[in-house]
Amino acid sequence: MKTIKKYQPPNLGESKLTSGFWFERTENYMHIIQSMENTLLDDKNAARLINFAIAAGEAKGAFYRNDWSDGDCYKFIEGCANQYAVTGDQRITDLMEPYIPWIEKAQEHDGYINTQITLTHIKRWEDPKHHELYNLGHLFTAGVTYYEATGDKRLLDVAIKAADNLCTVFLPINEELADFGFNPSQIMGLMDLYDVTGNEDYLTLADTFITMRGMKPTKGDFNQNRVPLRKESKPVGHAVMAAYLYAGAADVYGYTQDKTLFTSLERIWQDMINKRIYITGGVCPLYSGISERGDNVHEAFGDEYDLPHRIAYNETCANIGIAMWARRMYNLTGEATYGDWMENILYNAGISGASLDMTSYFYANPLAHRAKEHIKPTFNQYAHVPNKRFKTFTCWCCPPQLWRTFSGMPRWVYAVSDKGVSINLFTGCELDTKLRNGEPVKVVMETNYPWDKEVVIMIEQAPTDGMTLQYLIPSWCSKAKVNGHAKDPGVYEAVVKTGDKITLQLPMEAVFYEANPMVEQANGMVAVKRGPVVYCLEGHDIEGAYAMDELALSVEEGMEEVVIDELPYEMIGLKTHMYYKPKGQGLYHPRTPVEDKKVPVRLIPYFAWANRSEEDMSVWLNRA
């Protein structure tokens, strides 16, 4: 018997974006899909749909590029299914049609499917780094999503057959393969399959993959395998692998109610938000190094309070992965910390990896950039630090991660329980669903958040005796009002009935932030947020021939809100003045005083940087 979690996402297609921030980002969805398809068909790209055609005998050639290529193709398909669910646009399924048969034919007779194994000399389950489970996890989620969106079971049948094969390999627990929980998207994927099929083996296997942590600590902290997850106290190692593990564990807890698992997730969360996360929500500063326990790691969480700016790695997949974890924890608990950080990541480091038209990308998301001081990838260090956005790339995992997140945003906005609805994000979006007890409900939300302060929520249908509506006043908002009544930050519940209307006023003004003194890289600096959006300064927006590092910002300066005309979506920019502070010569030099010379500048949202020609950029600014 399933244990129903407190809140769960609505079924696919029951929530639809109608206007505002998230709607605008996917409004031109066919252009995005076709751009991605072209890249996935490019012979030189790291993720390739054609690998399935070769494995299916439909094309000639050899496997090319990354072991995780299959998984990134599945993420693209998942994103397309998300978009089809809310638009019903037949062009999407027509575009997908050639690829489903390729995947079907690429599957081996016993259910196993991984083109990097089938098309090479590599044997199954030879080495965790071959990403077999990563690919399968994304297949499971894509199969479920495609079925829920279209009613077409072909990809779901492939996923079920592959999951059944996986059960024969890992159940009962296979200690010899105990270190194979590598980049573990399979835990979330198995839980998606469990939700659709009710097959208890999938829940058992998902829980088994969690129990395997620490049984065979190969690679140690790099793949979260030195310490059993139920005993862990901090986030460690490769941040994408960690995020997927923690999010999957939250899914499993939703059904098993294993308190030891949940308390470990709480410990890890608290350590992360107090010591290891950027103001933008980025989470992996370290490209290559050593963990606090002495293990070699890369693309990883760093030491406590070590959060550099220009060499910050902050892989897009990891940032979104932590938001996925936060969303699950918020739905499970209704605790504000998870909702606050989910929002913070999604408006900042979660989306800065995509250009504003969603056709070129960043892998890494630093908090500073210098156009004439590029970081060179010496000894593979800093290999993915961006200088300009890419279309094809040596690791193409982030673009489909962004796509499935943007297209899947309707299921982030709302969550549903047996007694009510939770509003997890504010945006123009309609919900037409049934509560878990079968009662039909319809909620309509209208807002231009995060640029405007007003959010209007209309209850168009609710049970006769009402339902619970949960919403979050974000931690950044100190002057909120709900239907004219002042509210402090936090999570609130109200009983609402058909015809009720709730109006939230969430006043936004530019706020200066400082870092904990232990974050040495930000000492003597300030950052600016307006509402949930972190701002940055780009060289384009400095008047006169002044360099980024010659300017200092006074917290006494006011900020004028202006529309950024040369960028889309009528985003709000912040005009102000900075003071000229001449840059000294040499590695060390006598202090140069701040001059009484005001330089006009305009700050833009951090997620929108690098959408014009290359210039310097900083989130943290010298304080005058």
TrEMBL record:
SUPFAM superfamilies: Six-hairpin glycosidases. It comes from Vallitalea pronyensis. GO terms for biological process: carbohydrate metabolic process. Keywords: Hydrolase. The keyword Hydrolase applies. Pfam families: Beta-AFase-like_GH127_cat, Glyco_hydro127C, Glyco_hydro127M. This is Glycoside hydrolase family 127 protein. Residues 421-508 form the Non-reducing end beta-L-arabinofuranosidase-like GH127 middle domain.
